[in-house]
Amino acid sequence: MKYIFVTGGVISSLGKGLSAASIGNLLEARGLSVTFLKLDPYINVDPGTMNPYQHGEVFVTDDGAETDLDLGHYERFSLNRMSKENNYTTGKIYYNVISKERRGDFLGGTVQVVPHITDEIKHCIVAAGRVKGRKIDVVIVEIGGTVGDIESLPFLEAIRQFPYDIKKENVLYIHLTLIPFIKAADELKTKPTQHSVNKLREIGIQPDILLCRTDRFISQVLKKKIALFCNVETTAVITAKDVESSYEVPLVFHKEGLDEIITKKLKLKSDRPNLKSWEKMVNRIYHSKKEISIALIGKYVGLKDSYKSLYESLIHGGIGNEVKIHIEWIDSERLEGVDVSPMLKGCSGILVAGGFGTRGTEGKISAIRYAREGGVPFFGICLGMQCAVIEVARNVAGLKGANSTEFEPHTPHPVIDLMGSQRNKKEKGGTMRLGAYPCLIQKGTRTYQAYQHGEISERHRHRYEVNNSYRKQLSDAGLVFAGLSPDKTLVELIELKDHPWFVAVQYHPEFQSRPENPHPLFREFIKAGLDHQSAGV
Ligand code: GLN
Fold it and tell me: With a 6 A CB cut-off, is 461 part of the ligand 1 pocket?
């Protein structure tokens, strides 16, 4: 087993997650089998209880883990399906160690950062490489945070120790750093990178490869200089140039020789990479002639990362239809108490995102009404579906004051209510209905046609559901309960009769969409958008 450790320097947001994912993509293209591990320095046991503004999207895995959004990159760029073994936080590591201490595993000993915390970290790294039914060649481990932070030190110490357990030839350190272009000097500057590498070397880690984030390709002369000061080979200085689409990153890395040098250094036998279909997909992104606008309505649009997988899935829907997607990010609060049509008029499709709490929900409901009445393609996700049910209940079924008990506990018509299984839950962390569950789709529906079959499995993250005692009234009003849980107790999917495309789901299809295999509902939503656009409505 080989291990690649990806660290980041100088500043955050350089794209460590995308770099790790792209490395995995290239190694897979060479016929190698990879998996990933993200180590996050914060104390929360997982990001499930964090505000998206603090953390961005929470990515949900099949096994119901609430994880870092980088796991979404890993899944989209590789054939992997992530699980709870693929993301550890400082909080989770300490939680494990403290549980062992309480159990008496360390009786007589003083429990310390070194070796107990670092041993636990190393244990998780090794465990990530043991994937049921697959023989993994390379584990790619991304360390969150920036080198120099206090928080990530135990992780860095653990990866420093790692080669002593399994020999250096099986380990590679890759450091992502920044080479800023300073306009006034008309020059790319290497000093921040030198400092960042020094910081790593101070704690005993000598990077083998540098990924240098820049806005232009780095010349050979500059690569030599960086190599000299940072103690790496010149060929190991890789330009990580800014690109318009993140899906181009593996192609840029390949051009710079990254996969070649990784396989050489790790002595991995592999084929030349087959990047043909990936290249074709990237070409589709760059060269689609048509373009449509889609409104993405949510209350966290101030931070685009809050809707990372949704955004990517819309792009995938665009790839599937050979059309560029322009996203109109709309804060749902701005749609409250106003005429929404000026804001939504130019859009060929309206997507209402998931979320929690009351703020902005009335804006979402107004947008849904606009889509329903105007025949604009509408796609509701999780809370977006719940808002669609409320809208139809109020404005079609005539259930005045209908609402979700999440927003109004004493509503006269609780068309959305807490799931029975949630009623006794006291703790907030990890207690929602999480992960993959099956759903059966009714034949003859639009969604059945999209999926081309009736048995699906999709990922969930919710506490509320459609109140079954209102099903009759809602279906009389035109709602089609197109997808239900196999025991028929839970509404998973709704459609509206007599509308060009009105589909909403209790689950999160965005977690399973891939650039080369767009999720059928996103593909069909964009297709409906195109039809709407060409009808010139
Ligand atoms: N707040 C809603 C629930 O818990 C919707 C959750 C979501 O959109 N992820 O059911």
Answer: yes
Any ligand 1 atom below 6 A from CB of 354: yes
CA torsion through residues 65, 71, 76, 80, sign: negative
Question: 319: which 2 tokens?
Answer: 């790839």
Which active-site residues does the annotation give? 382, 508, 510
List the beta bridge partners of residue 323: 290
pLDDT value, residue 55: 86
Q: Which two tokens stand for residue 413?
A: 């018509």
Residue with tokens 């996700």, as numbered in its chain: 381
Question: Cα(367)–Cα(344) distance, rounded to whole angstroms?
Answer: 8
Handedness of CA 167, 233, 215, 242 (dihedral sign): negative
CA-353 nearest atom, ligand 1: 8
Q: What confidence score (pLDDT) does residue 537 get?
A: 61
Our mutation pick for probing the ligand 1 site, out of 462, 465, 492, 507, counting the most ligand atoms within 8 A of Cβ, is: 462
3-state DSSP call for residue 516? Answer: coil
* Amino acid 342: pLDDT: 95
Q: Which residue has tokens 């915390």?
A: 117
Query: Which residue bears the tokens 């190393």?
Result: 122
Minimum-distance ligand 1 atom for the alpha carbon of 354: 8
Please name the amino acid found at residue 92. K
Task: Look at residue 291 in the predicted model and tell me its pLDDT.
Answer: 96
Structure tokens at 90: 């400082």
Enter the DSSP assignment of 444.
T
Phi, psi of 168 (to 5 degrees): -60, -35
Task: Give 289 Cα–ligand 1 centroid separation in angstroms.
Answer: 37
Best residue among 296, 383, 511 to mutate for probing ligand 1's pocket (most ligand atoms within 8 Å of CB) is: 383
Determine if ligand 1 sits within 6 Å of the CB of residue 382.
yes
Report, in angstroms and rounded to the nearest whole number, the Rg of the chain calculated over CA atoms: 25
Mean pLDDT split into 10-residue runs, the chain, 537 residues: 96 93 98 98 94 92 97 97 97 97 95 97 97 95 95 97 93 98 94 97 97 95 97 97 97 97 96 94 95 96 95 97 97 95 96 95 97 97 98 97 96 96 91 96 96 97 97 96 97 96 98 98 98 87
Structure tokens of 36?
Answer: 């990933």
Query: How remote is the CA of residue 272 from the centroid of ligand 1, in Å?
Result: 45
**For residue 530, which of 325, 345, 371 has the smallest C-alpha distance?**
325
Mutate which of 464, 465, 511 to test ligand 1's pocket (most atoms within 8 Å of Cβ)? 464
